[in-house]
Amino acid sequence: MLKLNQPDLLRQQCLVNGEWCDAMSGAREPVMNPATGETLASVPQFSEAETLQAIESANQAWQAWKQLTAKARGALLNAWAEKMMAAQEDLARLITAEQGKPLAEARGEVAYAASFISWFAAEALRVDGSVLQSPQANQRLVVVKQPVGVCAAITPWNFPAAMITRKAAPALAAGCVMIVKPAEQTPLTALALGQLAVEAGIPAGVLQVITGDAAQVGKTLCDSPVVRKLSFTGSTEVGRLLMAQCAPTIKKLSLELGGNAPVIVFDDADLDAAVAGIMASKFRNSGQTCVCANRIYVQDGIHDALVEKLAAAVADLQVGDGSRAETSQGPLIDTQAVEKVQIHIRDALDKGATLVAGGQPHALGGTFFQPTLVTGVTQEMRFAREETFGPVAPVFRFRDETEVVSMANDTEFGLAAYLFTANAARQWRVGEALEYGMVGVNTGLISNEVAPFGGVKQSGLGREGSRYGIEEYLELKYLCIDVS
Ligand code: ADP
């Protein structure tokens, strides 16, 4: 069983208006450990009625929260971030238990998640308006920024802590209140974050965490005219549905959707740096992040040398239960994830690709999968079109820059892209030509609280993190004052 230093971080009820509650029906859903198949806990199955109560509480809480000074809100956010870091080990254990990632990665996620809170605690202080030059002598024109209001977040399982704080922190900093509906696979981390927010003194109703039937809770949040904004991270398919459901109430939307990240390695790249970057980008969280390398384009001249180094690095990966210190690759989240990986590999091999390493479910069983390397991949294969979301590195071969930019852009997605080259002019040229929201140059890790995270095309709307992220939770108000 899960052992925590602070046992009350294992919450099995929803946080509504500062109270821990069950569903009216008493219905509950189990939470599983993907590494062992063991049931860790269970959480309430909220439906429409409880969701409407949370919305009502949020609206009441907002009236007082928006009146606080930015400094006061920032201080409460800082207290929350400090509580999180004090509970880093417990939170990491919860993340590993319900999500599967190795403990070291989970600890890193807690620090990354807390960094958004402290960043936005500081950004709250810089929400300034402006005074415009009036075209009329008798008028003064002022622009102020005000919080959007009641916000909702629907978050995925791959970063059970960070996807919540990246949305809740800017919302609360801006003076909004937030209802969080975490993924059904990973509600325990979300509920623990709720407990820590309570301990930090964040007032009742300002941050609520509700679990339940995703479609029903989601529809209720979308339909409500009281909810003014929805921030969603997840699949493009569900993002599209939520966008349509938000149309009748013209809700503000932030969407972080699927990716199909290309990594381009040119002949002049530092091969060791490229391999390190590919490994970091591809195999983090066993390939289950939306910025994971999905297509690896390698130029002719270095193709074989790079594949050889990559194969050696893949062979070094240690698959196992994330709670074991030596593990670098945890299990996949569920059997559907394993099936998708297998379908993509089979499709490529059927169309002529070559399996260099892995390719099979791991001997550990369950949802463990062998880290896999495939070469001879082409644009006709599913790897080129769909996000694999697993520990599979598909290598494509290319001849020149024009060809590879066109292949890299040939997708409806546009989240992250990476390129490796020593040529400074090419870094700029290709960096600008790639139709992506984020481009890593000679690095495979690009995400932090200071930079704007987000995609173009069907990868989403809006940006999270950075000084731009708080704008998503602010409205501009223009005041025209007649001074005559
Ligand atoms: P994934 O394939 O990564 O699980 P999803 O888009 O299915 O991505 O899930 C991301 C989040 O969206 C989760 O919190 C999930 O519960 C929620 N979700 C899934 N389907 C719906 C839906 N129909 N309405 C609202 N939320 C949904």
From TrEMBL:
Aldehyde dehydrogenase domain boundaries: 20-478
Keyword presence, Oxidoreductase: yes
Membership in a protein family: Belongs to the aldehyde dehydrogenase family.
Protein name: NAD-dependent succinate-semialdehyde dehydrogenase
Alphabetized UniProt keyword annotations: Oxidoreductase
PANTHER family cross-referenced by the UniProt entry: SUCCINATE-SEMIALDEHYDE DEHYDROGENASE, MITOCHONDRIAL
UniProt cross-references to CDD domains, sorted A to Z: ALDH_F5_SSADH_GabD
Organism ancestry: Bacteria, Pseudomonadati, Pseudomonadota, Gammaproteobacteria, Enterobacterales
Source organism per UniProt: Jejubacter calystegiae
GO biological process assignments: gamma-aminobutyric acid catabolic process
GO terms assigned for molecular function: succinate-semialdehyde dehydrogenase (NAD+) activity
Residues forming the catalytic site: E256
Superkingdom classification of source: Bacteria
Cellular component aspect of the GO annotation: cytosol
